[in-house]
């Protein structure tokens, strides 16, 4: 009896031990599972947190690349603009010399016993400088001229507004210093390639002091239009009207500035149309006259073939449309009134049965923000473009508008 009881107790103890071991094992496994679950959750959280960071980093790289490209394009456009401005000043040294002669004639070298340099045999101490940065000042120029000593600086400005025109004249102590300064021509000064020349007066000046104007071409019969060239890039319609009023000439009925078809940039020339040919005869008398510090190039303009007179605005034969690009949905608008608004374009589109306009983009000057008299109109369908193109040469707010198919933009890199 006692032996049996001992055996039962031993079996019970073994069962209890086995049960305890099983519970301990289960607890350990549960703890391990909980730890694994926690680690998995942490890993998932880390992955979730890393995705936006990676996406953000990728976006920042993309934005940086886009910003760098935009900066590069802006720099390229700026260089192109500077090149155009430099080309516009192609005759600047000679013109500048004329200005210099009017204001202060080129001074001979001070006698200091030194022979005049080979590049300045006449001993001139006054030089012209062009293609200057708009932020240039006297201190920067004097430092750039060292070791030469500048005794006087004259910046060329617009007569009416006082706006700096990016050029000027420097007076040096002697011809040797002026000759040495000539060697700096083409060097980069304030991020611009400086243009330098001796300020010598022209030899073909007229008695009145102005540049001898180019002779007029043959006058067409019943001519009512003149061509204007060598214009200031700041000129506008009111300047022509003021000029006519000052000279006692009848007001023009239409002014058409010539612009680049792609960029809409003013090309420095245009046409002025009058109601009577007698006004043209009076206007051409001022060929070579100064307007906004530029000597006007005036000439008779040939009448356009098949151009009916007396038809009012929009009577002339419009320039033919260029070849339409496949799937074209945008048109270029030029020769626009400076009073034109989006509503005017929408109204004209409605007149010819064109559908809704998707976008209107007016071209403005990058620096001043002034409207350039042209822009682009985008439609939803190419059929609407064909309908709107029928407005080419039509009158809109007193101007015969120029309409043409717009070439698609080159794909961005």
What does this structure look like?
The chain starts with a helix and ends in an 8-residue tail after the last strand. Helix content is 36%, strand content 21%. About 12% of the residues have low confidence. Strand 4 and strand 5 form a beta hairpin. It has 413 residues and is α+β, with helices and mostly antiparallel strands. The radius of gyration is 39 Å and the shape is elongated. The protein is built from 8 helices and 18 strands. The strands form 6 sheets. It has a 4-stranded antiparallel beta sheet, sandwiched between helices.
Distance between the termini: 100 Å
Strand order of the largest sheet: 2-3-1-6
Task: State the share of residues found in helices, binned by percent.
Answer: 25-40%
Secondary-structure element order, as H and E? Answer: HHEHEEHEEEEHEEHEEEEHEEHEEE
Strand content: 15-25%
Low confidence ranges? 86-113, 202-210, 304-315
**What is the typical, i.e. mean, pLDDT?**
77
Quick structural overview:
With 413 residues, this protein is α+β, with helices and mostly antiparallel strands. It is 36% helix and 21% strand. The protein is built from eight helices and 18 strands.
Structural key phrases:
alpha+beta; 18 strands
Q: What's the topology here?
A:
Layout (H helix, E strand, L loop, with lengths): L1 H87 L3 H12 L22 E5 L7 H8 L4 E8 L6 E9 L2 H8 L5 E2 L2 E2 L1 E4 L26 E5 L7 H11 L6 E6 L6 E8 L3 H7 L6 E2 L2 E2 L1 E4 L29 E5 L7 H10 L5 E8 L6 E9 L2 H7 L6 E2 L2 E2 L1 E4 L8
Antiparallel strand pairs: 1-3, 1-6, 2-3, 4-5, 7-9, 7-12, 8-9, 10-11, 13-15, 13-18, 14-15, 16-17
């Amino acid at each position: 009896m006692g032996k049996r009881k001992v055996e039962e107790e031993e079996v019970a103890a073994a069962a209890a031990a086995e049960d305890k071991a099983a519970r301990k094992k289960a607890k350990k496994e549960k703890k391990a599972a909980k730890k694994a679950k926690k680690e998995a959750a942490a890993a998932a959280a880390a992955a979730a947190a890393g995705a936006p960071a990676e996406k953000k980093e990728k976006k920042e790289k993309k934005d940086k690349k886009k910003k760098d490209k935009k900066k590069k394009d802006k720099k390229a456009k700026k260089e192109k603009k500077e090149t155009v401005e430099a080309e516009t000043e192609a005759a600047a040294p000679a013109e500048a010399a004329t200005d210099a002669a009017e204001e202060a004639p080129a001074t001979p070298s001070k006698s200091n016993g030194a022979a005049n340099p080979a590049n300045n045999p006449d001993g001139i101490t006054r030089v012209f400088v062009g293609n200057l940065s708009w932020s240039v000042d006297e201190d920067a120029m004097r430092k750039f001229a060292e070791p030469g000593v500048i005794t006087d600086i004259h910046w060329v400005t617009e007569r009416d507004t006082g706006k700096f025109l990016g050029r000027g004249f420097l007076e040096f102590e002697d011809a040797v210093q002026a000759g040495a300064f000539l060697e700096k021509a083409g060097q980069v000064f304030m991020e611009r390639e400086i243009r330098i020349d001796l300020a010598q007066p022209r030899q073909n000046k007229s008695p009145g002091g102005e540049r001898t104007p180019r002779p007029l071409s043959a006058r067409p019969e019943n001519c009512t239009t003149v061509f204007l060239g060598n214009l200031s890039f700041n000129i506008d319609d009111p300047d022509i009207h003021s000029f006519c009023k000052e000279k006692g000439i009848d007001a023009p009925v239409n002014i058409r500035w010539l612009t680049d078809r792609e960029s809409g940039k003013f090309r420095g020339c245009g046409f002025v149309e009058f109601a009577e040919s007698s006004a043209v005869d009076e206007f051409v008398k001022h060929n070579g006259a100064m307007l906004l510090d530029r000597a006007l190039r005036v000439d008779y303009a040939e009448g356009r073939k098949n151009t009916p007179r007396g038809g009012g605005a929009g009577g002339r034969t419009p320039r033919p449309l260029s070849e339409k690009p496949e799937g074209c949905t945008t048109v270029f608008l030029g020769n626009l009134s400076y009073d034109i608004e989006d509503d005017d374009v929408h109204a004209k589109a409605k007149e010819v049965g064109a559908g809704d306009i998707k976008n209107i983009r007016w071209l403005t000057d990058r620096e001043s923000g002034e409207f350039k008299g042209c822009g682009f109109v985008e439609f939803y369908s190419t059929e609407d473009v064909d309908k709107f193109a029928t407005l080419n040469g039509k009158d809109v707010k007193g101007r015969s508008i120029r309409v043409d198919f717009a070439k698609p933009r080159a794909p961005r890199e």
